[in-house]
Structures are given as C-alpha cells and as structure tokens.
Amino acid sequence: MSALTTPVGLVPGVGRPAARALAAQGVHTVGDLAGRDWPDLAQLHGVGPAAGRRLQAVLAEHGATMQDPPAPQTRRDVVTRGATGTGASDLKTHATAADPAEYVAGLEPRRRRDGEALLEIFGAATGASATMWGPSMIGYGEVHYRYASGREGETFQLGFSPRRGELALYGLQGFPRSEELLARLGKHRRGAGCVWVRSLAAIDPGTLRELVEHAWAQGPDSTDRPGSAAP
Predict the structure, then answer these.
(1) Number of CB atoms found within 10 A of residue 63's CB
(2) Residues in domain YdhG-like (predicted)?
C-alpha cells in the first residue's frame, strides 16, 4: 500500500477526531487530500495544524499537495535556566543525593587530585553548590532542555566527570569567547557536548576557570549553538 492510499487515520500524529471529520468530507486516504483547500479543512472540528502538517508532508513526498497548505513548523533546540519537573519518562540520568566530595574522595589517587581541583575551580567560578547527576557526573545549576524533536528533560548547566581515561568538562562551548579561551586552554579535544582533557596537568587551570566563569555568566538561554546538547 503506497503512502497516498494510506488511510488518513493511520498517519502518525493524526488523531481519530481528525480522521472522522475528514472522512465526513470524503477524505479517507492521504491521496484524497490532493488539491483540497486546507483553510476549509482546518475549520473542521478536530483537524488542527499539527495534523495538517503531517498530512501535507506525506503528500509532498509523493509530489502532491493541498491548496494553500499549512506552513511547516520550524523548531529549534531550546535550553532555559531552572528545573520544571518535566522530562521524557525513559531518562536515566537524574540529580541524586550523593555527596560529590565523598564521590571524589573515593576515586583512585590521580583522578581524586583532578576531581578535588575541579570541585574548587567550578565552585569558585559559579558560586553554586555541586550536585551528583547519575553515578559519575558533577553538575552546577539546573537547566531544562527541549529539543526540536520535542524530547525534553533536565540536566545541569555546567559540570564535569573525572573519568578514568579522560576528564569530561560539560557546557563550556558555544559562547562568545569560547573559541578564544579554548585556544588558550591547552591540549584537549571536543565532543558534541563536552571538552575532553587527559588531566589538569595538560591544561592551564586559570584559563579553565575563566572559561567556566564565562559560560556560567552567559547562561543556558541560548539556542542553536554548539555544545547546547544535554550531557
């Protein structure tokens, strides 16, 4: 069965009320929408713009269209300061009641030294208390994110994880002076949402503190920037 012969009610995102209302107008399959006037159909009870966009997208994939179709919705990632208590049900990483200092104290000697130094640098630069997120990430501040896909959740604004292989530093990219400061930081590599360093001995701690201060002051209320993805 091709997409154009698919019953309207089987298109993901088109609810039963919309399917019933369209059927009453003789629209049973996606193909039946070709050439129909969208503003008229949009007046039907249960037929909203979201359903219209999904149906128009299927038509467009097969070279067909409604008349005066609904405009596609442009979405972007949005990150805002503060927690809302809303998130996807399958999220596994959450803030915990564990003590970050106790966690760091239990690490092997090399990572314990780096972890203690990072606690001091991030704490002084942000003025915020450290919180454990999941078993190994230490975060400062809380933010709510909503991706263009609609998936949302909460995480920390800035933070780090003193992993055995490399230190992960979160939330430091994508701000006005990020590139300048990272160029001065020392040996590191960059991931989608974090900066990786082998050890603090390989970077300049003063530059790191300045980088943390800058990212904290800029805040998370910035969209479409590298590194905005949640850890």
Answers:
(1) 8
(2) 111-215
CATH topology of domain 78-218: Aspartate Aminotransferase, domain 1 (3.90.1150)
Chain mean position to CA 25? 40
Give the start-to-end residue ranges of the domains of the chain. Answer: 3-61, 78-218
pLDDT, tens only, 136-178: 999 999 988 776 656 678 889 999 999 988 999 999 998 999 9
- For residue 193, give the DSSP letter: S
- Whole-number Cα distances in Å, 127 to 66, 77, 90, 130, 140: 56, 27, 31, 10, 9
- Domain 3-61 grouped into CATH 1.10.10: no
pTM: 0.62
For the segment 69-91, what is each residue's pLDDT rounded down to a tens digit?
Answer: 988 765 566 777 766 666 656 66
